[in-house]
Design brief:
heterodimer; A: mainly alpha; MetI-like fold; 13 helices; 0% strand; B: mainly alpha
Chain lengths: 319, 298
């Protein structure tokens, strides 16, 4: 197990280095000089003499070779210094500290709901295979994995927000401030982000469960006279949960991707909306920081999933 | 010449040989949803090819009708802010969707398959470099990566295609690498190599053809995902330039008038969903018909 963990950690380290390289160099491929973009937005460009520009270039370290700039940037990131936002005139670190909790609040709720209900739905569909409940759940999972996130968002927005007026259509409030308002505001975004994961988990759970139920040890459990609840939860569920865990890792990335769309629809001041507005505002320091943080989160979650996978299923460790 | 212990009737009762094609067709068309998906796709292709004949109005010319008209006999899905017929724009949008979908899948699968087969065949350093780079790309959620790349390159249909291709290369590389690793253990590959076949020849003639069935399934499913991703990008306002008709962009344009003209957003949404559903179902059907063992893997 230790060798397996060490090997995985080393791999993750290599991947992390490549991730930082990608983030840094993709941003540097931006057409145009980052300094000029900065200057054009903060002051009027005509008023600056070439000497002043050179001075600024030195100040930002943009006169050094790319590799040195990269090392400086990574060094800064490790100290939590992501630089200064051009658009918001604020430290990017502070900006992200404001925005990330919002996205995480909605994202984590969606992840949990998708996991719990997805597993339950898949379990029910498998155990009652071919019965009415399976016939309801299975087609719904097909719809769930194909419905575009923004369609679901607009649909809920229209039906629950505009037509029925049950839920507020925009904004976000911290649960510390006003718990009930916060709850009402996050219901629709959470549903939107949870549906794909829920459907995917249910499908995976159903097929894994059907696979496991056929095994000899399950027949033995039945033959021993154990009750259905016991056979399913204690014997069958443990092994069928393994493939579902992998989906959790994927789910984190999908939720971050979806939050870009959902936060735009419901006007939620999260990190997804910050990313979109920064892209349009060419605020490349912010874009760089957000993409890096999201990629690292996805990397870490997948690392955790891989390690727990090895723990649940010893066959993986020796593969 | 009788085989020991067997009589003629044993041979006669053996099941008749079913041709591969007939077996494929039977399994492929067995499920209703797959047939439904196939019908949707056929209609989609017909719509895209014959768009100029099917569309009742010019999809680009503004001011042909009153702005934001409700659905009526002349305009079954109403008109947008600029007085353009929604149905006509929807019909032309199918061209954008298919163009982006097919070209990006072609580009991404070409690069992905080459990288994957190299990584799987040569193992060692080549494998480590390629697959770690792919892992790194996979750390970025697809929409996010496409969004950032498209913003770096600037809008426009080619740049959207490039962005989506880069974002989907790792998927193909991973699957191809895994397939190559298992295929190269086969005896026929060993036999080829012992006969002095070059690496390139072995990869192209013996490994690639055997990796085709799963790749075809993956490609079909990716078509749906790419059309969805393109819609998401143009929904966010990055992608096809204004006069062009893209479903995602139409959703975004209509979104501001959701209260009064919901059909402006809902019509393209339903089109996107139908097409994504159709590609997924046809992919599912292909998988079951080509190789049922792939269930759960793809």
């Amino acid at each position: 197990m230790t060798t397996y963990i060490v090997r995985r950690l080393l791999q993750a380290l290599v991947v992390l280095v490549i991730v930082t390289l990608i983030v840094f160099f993709v941003m540097r491929l931006l057409p145009g000089d980052p300094l000029l973009i900065y200057v054009a937005q903060s002051a009027n460009i005509q008023a600056m003499s070439p000497e002043v520009l050179d001075e600024m270039r030195r100040e930002f370290g943009l006169d050094k070779p790319l590799m040195i700039q990269y090392v400086n940037w990574v060094g800064g990131v490790f100290r939590g210094e992501f630089g200064q936002s051009i658009f918001y005139h604020e430290k990017v670190g502070t900006l992200m500290l404001e925005r990330f909790p919002v996205t995480l609040h909605i994202g984590i709720l969606a992840l949990i709901i998708g996991a719990v209900f997805g597993v339950l739905a898949g379990l029910l569909a498998a155990v009652r295979r071919g019965k009415w409940i399976d016939k309801v759940i299975t087609p719904l999972t097909y719809v769930g994995i194909t419905i575009p996130v923004f369609f679901l968002g607009i649909l809920l927005y229209y039906v629950l927000g505009l037509k029925l007026g049950w839920l507020p259509i925009a904004g976000y409030t911290s649960p510390m401030e006003d718990f009930w308002l916060s709850m009402k505001q996050v219901i629709m975004p959470v549903i939107c982000l949870a549906v794909f994961g829920l459907a995917a988990n249910a499908r995976q759970m159903r097929s894994a469960m059907l696979e496991v139920i056929r095994q000899d040890y399950i027949r033995t459990a039945w033959a021993k006279g154990l009750g259905e609840r016991f056979v399913i939860t204690k014997h069958a569920m443990k092994n069928s949960l393994i493939p579902v865990i992998t989906l959790m890792g994927l789910g984190v990335g999908i939720i971050f991707g979806g939050s870009v769309l959902i936060e735009t629809i419901f006007a939620i001041p999260g990190v997804g909306r910050l990313l979109v507005s920064s892209i349009f505002g060419q605020d490349y320091v912010v874009v760089q920081a957000i993409t890096l943080v999201i990629a690292v989160v996805v990397l870490l979650v997948n690392l955790a999933v891989d390690i727990s996978y090895g723990w649940f299923d010893p066959r993986i460790r020796y593969g | 010449m009788a085989v020991d212990g067997m009589v003629a009737s044993d041979f006669l009762e053996a099941p008749p040989r079913v041709s591969e094609w007939r077996r494929f067709r039977r399994v492929f068309l067995a499920r209703g949803v797959v047939v439904f998906g196939l019908v949707v796709l056929v209609l989609l292709f017909i719509t895209a090819i014959f768009a100029p004949f099917l569309a009742p109005y010019d999809p680009y010319l503004p001011g042909q009708a009153p702005s934001l008209a409700q659905p009526s006999l002349e305009h079954p899905l109403g008109t947008d802010l600029l007085g353009r017929d929604t149905l006509s724009r929807l019909i032309y949008g199918s061209r954008t969707a298919l163009e982006v979908g097919f070209i990006s899948v072609a580009v991404a699968s070409l690069f992905g398959v080459v990288l994957g087969i190299l990584a799987g065949y040569f193992k060692g350093a080549v494998n480590i470099i390629i697959m770690r780079a792919m892992d790194a790309l996979l750390c970025f959620p697809m929409i996010l990566l496409a969004l950032v790349v498209a913003s770096v390159l600037g809008g426009g249909i080619q740049n959207v295609i490039i962005a989506l291709s880069i974002a989907t290369i790792p998927g193909y590389a991973r699957v191809t690498c895994a397939l190559t690793l298992s295929l190269k253990e086969n005896d026929y590959v060993l036999a080829q190599r012992s006969m002095g076949s070059s690496d390139i020849r072995t990869m192209l003639r013996h490994i690639l053809p055997n990796a085709f069935p799963p790749l075809i399934v993956l490609l079909t499913m990716q078509l749906g995902n790419l059309i969805l991703a393109e819609a998401a990008l143009s929904f966010l306002g990055i992608g096809i330039a204004p006069p062009g008709a893209a479903w995602g962009g139409m959703v975004n344009d209509g979104y501001k008038y959701l209260r009064t003209n919901p059909v402006l957003s809902f019509a393209p949404c339903i089109a996107i969903m139908l097409v994504v559903f159709a590609f997924n179902m046809v992919g599912d059907g292909l998988r079951d018909a080509l190789d049922p063992r792939l269930r759960g893997l793809l």
